[in-house]
């Protein structure tokens, strides 16, 4: 049990490795296609044939061997599979590949066998007498350059020996006239989009996640696994060195290596870049993934309560400790820092898990995670460097004691509350109706009451020391918790006070309620959930359209609705002047069978459109070259763009000005 959560924590990243973009610098997500495959057949005699598969790669790209690389983080090996049976044909030996020596790979930092420019694979087969098999060969592979890898793909060849015909692709997936018609219907031919190139606005997000990571690191410092290490480690370096200057340098290096280690932990997330523009949304709203995070956070919470310890295998830390002892100099200090990271995992792991869940389920992907890890590592490293420079500060540190466990248990309650956010995401996307807004807030109130009871000494946990007088700080945090619970209580009512603006984005939306709100749109607005119906209404009422690309699990969407749209002036313009069309790109409800189809991608390939979210996510990407939410577009009822689309805009006056500009342009166009 104690290893379960840590294993899950490190397994999830590899589910999410594809949550990034391939960016060619234009601002658009582009399909990278650096490899092409060809197939041919050589006839040896009436029953023996050789299937030949040739991979052609662009300069700088690598295709990996079929042999598994013997390293922890390895590239995806190329794999061949065939539909051979006793009745049709049998394989003679294994699929052969070019015989080359391993080459040093910069991405994986190891000697790996890979192919460049061209690679030819051969497979001999023996065809059964009087049989005419339809041979299907599938190649599973991934390619990388010196900076990144692309997601694994499958190339398929259908080979007819009798007709000497080879066709590539999944030809058994039929494309009907219905598919073609519904594919064409997705493109609404927006006029004016060419004026507005997509812009990258990630700088502020990176700074925010860095600061959040830094705060998380500061919190980790106050846990029983880390705090006692500060004076011990600083004293070791300053007193154990030959001179004070050497001790200072070693302590600063120790802190630097702690920082570097946490940054390095995020590097595996950069190995693959996604070529699917909707993958980030799919990850953040994936039901299975959110439930896994819910379970992990529950496990973390009870670990913080003291019922068990989540640790990495002790052999890891022992091995690192031995390395630190046996190797001197910079390398030894590095292994000391790595040992700290391993032995403190029971306290830092849950905080890092929160950082992981918060960053990889948002638009920043792996780069955002790296920034968060950098902030976390910096906060952990600073005390070791600063206290080495100013050792007298050690006297001002409070002594280790029961207050450290109080911090840990408090974090456990916070983890417990956050767990239900992930369950809520799954509930919203699947429309289960389990965690309506009031039920969600009720759970948070219970968690808050539990924290209050603990802080005021009414309940205790396994690692609590002897009962003592409640300190002023503990009492103060208890009072703040009580005030927070009081703030939540109006959220249980069916009144205007239920709009808890400070928490916008965390609870389910206001209209996802146990009360009858009369509408399923934010703030009681009338919203169409279908583009065609909304467009028809706009033409009937001769009003402009505000197209709202949103999501059930989109935090910033809720913030916009509850903090910006609730502004009386903004609300009046939305309610009276525009037709609101809200399209939920993460809605996992299946489309009626008649509306499901295979989408023909502009650059080739097929994507099944089976759910409401599939349809609107593709609709957004196809027409507006954007896949973030919230995303707002103002159109007239002839589908002409009125002004530049915007995303998350927390400034009420700025958003109101944007709405009024669109309205003015619509009125001017109508006069003409």
Automatic annotation (TrEMBL):
Q: Example GO molecular function term?
A: protein-disulfide reductase activity
GO CC aspect terms: membrane
**Any idea where this protein resides?**
Membrane
Using the record's annotation, list all stretches that form the Cytochrome C biogenesis protein transmembrane domain.
210-424
In its keyword annotation, does this UniProt entry include Lyase? Answer: no
Report how it sits in the membrane. Multi-pass membrane protein
SUPFAM superfamilies per record = Thioredoxin-like
Q: What is the recorded name of this protein?
A: Thiol:disulfide interchange protein DsbD
Instruction: Indicate the transmembrane segments per the record.
Output: 206-227, 248-267, 287-308, 329-352, 372-390, 402-420, 440-461, 473-492
Domain of life assignment: Bacteria
According to the record, the signal peptide region is 1-19
According to its UniProt entry, the protein's GO biological process terms are: cell redox homeostasis; cytochrome complex assembly
Please report the stretch or stretches of sequence annotated as the Thiol:disulfide interchange protein DsbD N-terminal domain: 48-159
Keyword list, A-Z: Cytochrome c-type biogenesis, Membrane, Signal, Transmembrane, Transmembrane helix
């Amino acid at each position: 049990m104690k290893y379960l959560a840590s294993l899950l924590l490190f397994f999830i990243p590899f589910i999410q490795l594809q949550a990034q973009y391939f960016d060619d610098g234009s601002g658009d997500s582009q399909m990278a296609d650096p490899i092409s495959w060809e197939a041919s057949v050589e006839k040896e005699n009436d029953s023996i044939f050789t299937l030949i598969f040739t991979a052609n790669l662009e300069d700088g790209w690598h295709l990996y061997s079929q042999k598994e690389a013997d390293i922890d983080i390895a590239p995806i090996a190329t794999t061949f599979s065939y539909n051979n049976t006793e009745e049709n044909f049998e394989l003679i030996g294994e699929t052969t590949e070019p015989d080359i020596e391993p080459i040093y790979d910069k991405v994986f930092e190891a000697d790996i066998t890979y192919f460049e420019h061209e690679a030819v694979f051969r497979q001999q087969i023996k065809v059964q007498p009087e049989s005419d098999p339809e041979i299907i060969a599938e190649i599973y592979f991934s390619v990388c350059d010196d900076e990144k890898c692309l997601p694994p793909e499958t190339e398929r060849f259908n080979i007819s020996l009798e007709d000497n015909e080879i066709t590539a692709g999944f030809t058994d997936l039929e494309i009907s006239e219905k598919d073609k018609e519904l594919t064409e219907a997705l493109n609404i031919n927006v006029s004016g989009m060419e004026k507005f190139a997509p812009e990258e606005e990630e700088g502020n997000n990176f700074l925010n996640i860095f600061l959040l990571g830094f705060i998380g690191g500061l919190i980790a410092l106050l846990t029983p696994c880390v705090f006692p290490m500060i004076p011990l480690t600083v004293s070791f370096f300053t007193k154990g060195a030959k001179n004070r200057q050497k001790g200072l340098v070693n302590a600063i290096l120790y802190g630097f290596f702690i920082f570097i280690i946490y940054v390095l932990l995020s590097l595996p997330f950069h190995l693959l870049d996604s070529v699917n523009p909707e993958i980030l949304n799919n990850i953040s709203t994936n039901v299975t993934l959110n439930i896994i995070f819910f379970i992990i956070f529950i496990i973390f919470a009870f670990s913080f309560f003291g019922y068990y310890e989540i640790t990495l295998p002790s052999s890891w830390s022992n091995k690192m400790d031995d390395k630190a002892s046996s190797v001197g100099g910079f390398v030894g200090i590095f292994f000391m820092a790595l040992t700290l990271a391993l032995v403190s995992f029971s306290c830092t792991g849950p905080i890092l898990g929160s950082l992981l869940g918060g960053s990889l389920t948002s638009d920043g992907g792996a780069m955002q995670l790296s920034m968060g890890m950098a902030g976390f590592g910096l906060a952990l490293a600073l005390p070791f460097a600063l206290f080495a420079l100013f050792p007298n500060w050690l006297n001002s540190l409070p002594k280790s004691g029961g207050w450290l466990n109080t911090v840990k248990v408090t974090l456990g309650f916070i983890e417990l509350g956050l767990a239900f956010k992930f369950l809520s995401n799954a509930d919203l996307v699947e429309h289960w109706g389990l965690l309506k807004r009031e039920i969600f807030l009720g759970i948070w109130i219970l968690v808050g009451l539990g924290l209050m009871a603990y802080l005021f000494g009414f309940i205790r946990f396994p690692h609590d020391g002897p009962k003592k007088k409640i300190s002023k700080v503990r009492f103060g945090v208890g009072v703040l918790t009580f005030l927070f619970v009081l703030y939540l209580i109006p959220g249980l009512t069916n009144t205007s006070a239920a709009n808890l603006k400070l928490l916008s984005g965390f609870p389910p939306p206001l209209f996802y309620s146990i009360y009858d709100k009369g509408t399923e749109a934010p703030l009681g607005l009338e919203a169409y959930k279908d583009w065609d119906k909304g467009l028809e209404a706009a033409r009937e009422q001769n009003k402009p359209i505000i197209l709202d690309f949103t999501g059930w699990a989109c935090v910033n969407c809720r913030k916009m609705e509850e903090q910006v749209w609730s502004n009386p002036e903004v609300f009046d313009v939305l309610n009276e002047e525009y037709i609101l069309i809200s399209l939920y790109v993460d809605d996992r409800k299946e489309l009626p069978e008649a509306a499901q189809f295979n989408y023909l991608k502009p650059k080739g390939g097929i994507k099944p459109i089976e759910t409401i979210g599939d349809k609107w996510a593709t609709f957004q990407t196809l027409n507006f070259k954007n896949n973030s939410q919230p995303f707002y577009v103002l159109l007239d009822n002839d589908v002409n763009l009125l002004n530049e689309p915007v995303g998350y805009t927390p400034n009420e006056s700025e958003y109101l000005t944007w709405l009024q500009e669109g309205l003015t342009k619509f009125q001017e166009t109508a006069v003409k």
